[in-house]
Design a protein that fits this description.
Strand order of the largest sheet of chain A: 1-2
Strand order of the largest sheet of chain B: 1-4
Order of helices and strands of chain A: HHHHHHHHEHHHHHEHHHH
Number of helices of chain A: 17
Order of helices and strands of chain B: HHHHEEEHHHHEHHH
Radius of gyration of chain A: 23 Å
Largest sheet of chain B: 2 strands, antiparallel
Number of strands of chain B: 4
Low-confidence stretches of chain B: 1-11
Oligomer: heterodimer
Helix content of chain B: 55-70%
Structural class of chain A: mainly alpha
CATH class of chain B: Mainly Alpha
Largest interface: A-B, 61 and 60 residues
Radius of gyration of chain B: 21 Å
Number of domains of chain B: 1
Structural class of chain B: mainly alpha
Largest sheet of chain A: 2 strands, antiparallel
Number of helices of chain B: 11
Shape of chain A: globular
């Protein structure tokens, strides 16, 4: 069924062959300048529509820095300009940018976590947001007046000392991983489809508990959640000209950046480690992987638990950022949102997943609301039924279906998928010189059955 | 759903009250269960031929409910017989939902035939989301989001006597009986269709082994389309029954019963038609029982039952599902299959 090519396929397929150092620098400079100098023009009115466009265009420079072939010093300059100067500057001028960037990073982390489960191990988890809820509620309950309400102890009237925040991040990681294992144990013996439906159910179970248990304060949610105090950072922020109410966002920005760097690092190491290859093997063919000595249940549990732990850590940060959580932040639709980030960007590829998170989060938090706002300002009599921000499901659904039908490998596919899915396409420019792909892999024959065509009746016995 | 009442005086719950509640659960759960069963059949038949969870089925189902609403609404003031109105609503819903399901299969699933399994599954989720907002838009054209269904006169009147026995305490309405009768007729009809006609044999053959069925001269694409048509029509009928039972629905309300119906299909053994019926009824009972179980906390020694709030009844289906998958992964009536390479 699987034919391996005699020569290994080139795994790095990057767009463009030539060196683009100057193009990269020019692009970054132009978009950054546009964003900074037009910041007051695009703050309100119909021009506000340009806000997500310019901001997105600027964020793209970092993606280009990652993808393009350019000198390392230029890449470093682009990253530093973006992360150290432009983003904090825009955040200082208009806190909504800070909010957006933090939101994007939180969802990127969630998407990277789900990427391990879906993209690497091939386990479709439709209740992933439940782990996020575990982290958020853990800190939400202990770091807010809710603790005083539950225990009736006046000492906890404002929750635990906010400094415990640092303890609760590892605690949330551990608890989410534990919940992941507990949920995974009965569930992971099931095959793909059952797994999807059961995880969906378990996601609902956690939401229903959050809606009904007294300790979560039900549908009213928990308010007044604290974030960790960091006086020295506040001092720095103050001297940089940040307003006092922006200090928390400044701290969270740095914290989220640190956590996401860690997560990306872990993801990269995992991808190339023995365990990462075991996950991919399971995704490609469970039975073959088992025959090669991969312990199925343990490996799957590990994928589930590591994905869950990212979500748990981010849950704590999310709770601290929002200062208010309620069950609506953790419903099925949110799980689908994270899933569409992974699918859109490209399963199994870190930069693709982050790109997906950026696109989907911006769509959700700026593009659609801005569009509705401008529409309503321009046409006050417009039918409420035409409000674009009310059609998020349609847009997500469209993204999922479109991607699956026309580009199942995602916008930025992992190199492996790219090769698998377009093996019968005519060779692209840079590849034409040494193209090994066409020989030995005719139509219907695949490098691995992962996402590629499998003969219609070549299902394994159990699937019949 | 009909409200459950406790006919007790003070804190003392007597045996007769307990029996009444249990009877109410039995009958109420049955009418909920056959509803799940009808919807579950759509899932299980599609799964049978394509090994795909048709996530969009929950929207196909609620489309039927919305069509039913429009028919009832349009005929609101006509002097037509109430049962004729119901028949019209059911027919319209079955045609629309069946056609919708065929279109979905043709446009979204057929191009992906033979792709890796996650691909059509994710597509199905996407189609379901697209349909939810499309339905919202269509319903929104009337200026509403939540629809409240006006049933023909007499459908909601309580039933007091059956075969000379007083059944007031069961809290039944005429519509519950209609639901039970229609659903039972449908289930019998489907069984006849699948087990005693050429088409049924072709469906079973395709479900069993598509390639061999093709060699025997069966056009598997046509059979798959027909399966979607039948499943969708059943879903549409289920939608009308849902609209009749709850008298309130919106574009998003297909999701929860849809997922429960799928759980029912898995519970009974996915791909098995009698399994889907059994699973639906079991699920209906479990859910209804969970909804009232806290009432028994007044009984001696069962105080802890008061912690099981009625809101947790939605968990019943999933807990039953997890339990059954843990004990017997193939479901109640599913055949075990060995994994071959």
């Amino acid at each position: 069924m699987t034919t391996l090519p005699t020569t290994p396929a080139p795994l790095k397929v990057r767009p463009g062959g030539g060196d683009r150092t100057w193009a990269l620098l020019a692009y970054t400079a132009i978009t950054a300048a546009l964003l900074i100098f037009m910041r007051s023009t695009i703050a309100d009115g119909p021009m506000k529509l340009l806000q997500p466009v310019l901001f997105g265009a600027f964020l793209l420079s970092m993606l280009f820095a990652y993808q393009w072939k350019a000198a390392n010093w230029a890449k470093t300059i682009v990253y530093i300009t973006g992360i150290v100067f432009v983003l904090p500057f825009m955040g200082r001028e208009n806190a909504s940018y800070f909010d957006l960037v933090i939101q994007i990073l939180i969802f990127s982390a969630l998407a990277l976590g789900l990427n391990i489960v879906v993209g690497l191990a091939g386990l479709l988890d439709l209740g992933y947001i439940a782990f996020f809820a575990v982290g958020a509620y853990l800190w939400g309950i202990f770091g807010s007046p809710q603790l005083g309400q539950i225990t009736g102890n006046a000492a906890y009237a404002h929750g635990l000392n906010p400094a415990y925040f640092w303890l609760f991040i590892p605690l949330a990681v551990a608890l989410a991983a534990l919940v992941g294992v507990l949920i995974g144990l009965p569930v992971l013996k099931l095959k793909g489809d059952y797994l999807a439906i059961v995880t969906l159910g378990l996601g609902e179970v956690i939401r229903i508990f959050a809606n009904n248990l007294p300790i979560t304060n039900g549908p009213q949610g928990i308010d007044g959640i604290e974030s960790a105090p960091v006086p020295w950072l506040d001092k720095i922020a103050g001297s940089l000209g940040f307003a006092p109410e922006q200090h928390k966002l400044f701290f969270l920005y740095i914290l989220v950046l640190a956590v996401i760097s860690l997560i990306v690092l872990v993801n990269r190491r995992l991808d190339r480690s023995k365990i990462g290859r075991a996950w991919i093997a399971i995704r490609e063919d469970e039975i073959a992987a088992q025959a090669m000595g991969v312990p199925l249940l343990r490996t799957k549990l590990l994928a589930f638990a590591s994905g869950a732990s990212f979500a748990g850590a981010m849950g704590v940060i999310f709770a601290a950022k929002q200062a208010f959580i309620d069950p609506t932040s953790f419903n099925y639709f949110q799980s689908i949102g994270v899933l569409s980030m992974v699918i859109l960007g490209g399963m199994g590829n870190i930069s693709g997943v982050i790109l997906g998170a950026v696109v989907v989060t911006m769509l959700n938090f700026t593009v659609l609301p801005t569009l509705s706002e401008v529409l309503q300002a321009q046409f006050p009599n417009i039918n409420q039924n035409l409000d674009p921000s009310k059609y998020q499901r349609f847009i997500f659904g469209f993204v999922l279906v479109f991607m699956m039908l026309f580009r199942p490998e995602g916008l930025l596919p992992s190199a492996r998928h790219q090769v698998e899915m377009h093996q019968d396409d005519p060779p692209a420019g840079s590849l034409s010189a040494d193209n090994h792909l066409q020989e030995g892999t005719g139509e219907g024959e695949v490098l691995s059955p992962g996402f590629a065509t499998r003969g219609e009746n070549e299902r394994t016995g159990s699937e019949k | 759903m009909s409200a459950f009442r406790l006919h007790n005086t003070g804190d003392q719950v007597d045996l007769q009250t307990v029996m009444t509640i249990l009877l109410q659960v039995l009958v109420g759960g049955l009418s909920l269960g056959v509803l799940y069963a009808i919807v579950a059949l759509g899932y299980t038949m599609v799964y049978g031929v394509l090994q795909l969870i048709n996530f969009a089925h929950s929207e196909v189902f609620i489309t039927g409910g919305i069509v039913g609403y429009f028919v009832f609404h349009a005929l609101q003031d006509s002097s037509m017989n109430g049962y004729l109105k119901l028949v019209l609503a059911c027919l319209a819903a079955m045609i629309v939902s069946g056609a919708l399901n065929v279109v979905i299969e043709r446009l979204a699933y057929r191009p992906l035939r033979g792709a890796q399994r996650l691909v059509p599954l994710i597509t199905a989720i996407g189609v379901s989301l697209i349909l939810q907002d499309t339905l919202k838009f269509v319903v929104g054209l009337t200026g509403m989001f939540d629809l409240s269904v006006t049933l023909p006169k007499g459908f909601t009147s309580p039933l007091t006597k059956f075969a000379g026995i007083d059944i007031t305490s069961l809290n039944l309405q005429v519509k519950d009986v209609i639901l039970l009768v229609v659903a039972t007729l449908m289930l019998i009809g489907l069984n006849l269709l699948v087990n005693h006609t050429r088409l049924g044999r072709a469906i079973r053959a395709v479900a069993h082994d598509r390639q061999t069925a093709g060699l025997m001269g069966i056009d598997s694409n046509r059979i798959i389309s027909l399966t979607f048509l039948i499943g969708g029509a059943l879903g549409g009928l289920g939608g009308v029954m849902y609209a009749m039972k709850y008298q309130a629905l919106n574009a998003y309300s297909g999701m929860a019963p849809g997922m429960k119906a799928f759980s029912a299909a898995v519970l009974g053994g996915i791909g098995s038609i009698p399994g889907a019926m059994l699973g639906g009824i079991v699920l209906g009972w479990v859910e209804t029982l969970l909804g009232v179980v806290s009432l028994f906390s007044a009984l001696p020694g069962l105080h802890w039952l008061s912690y099981i709030k009625a809101e947790y009844k939605d968990l019943g289906g999933f807990l039953a599902l997890i339990l059954i998958l843990f004990i017997k992964p193939t479901g109640l009536l599913g055949k075990s299959s060995t994994e071959k390479v």
